[in-house]
Amino acid sequence: MAYSSGIGIVAGICFVVAFGALNFGVLKSVSPLYQVLNFLGATGFTYTAISPFNPGLFVLEVVWAGVAVYGLWKIRTGRPGTDPGAPGAGSGSTSSVSGSS
Fold this sequence. Notes:
Blueprint (H helix, E strand, L loop, with lengths): L3 H20 L8 H17 L6 H23 L24
Helix pairs in contact: 1-2, 2-3
């Protein structure tokens, strides 16, 4: 655990870069780089939660890393729902409800 401080700082930087790039429109949530930055941040914070053990942070970051891996898997396999703006994404209905007059 000698490197916990440095790993924690790098993990925090990964999260902030990913979050900032998403909000400034530099990256999209379907970007592999966005998902990798989230994974690296989560695994780094998971490492720092081991000693002294912080169960809340540990569980949060393990789940966060798992979600990032799932996002990378969806991108890699081209699973539906990877691009919310793509045609056919969402509820599948593009018609509007119109009443009779």
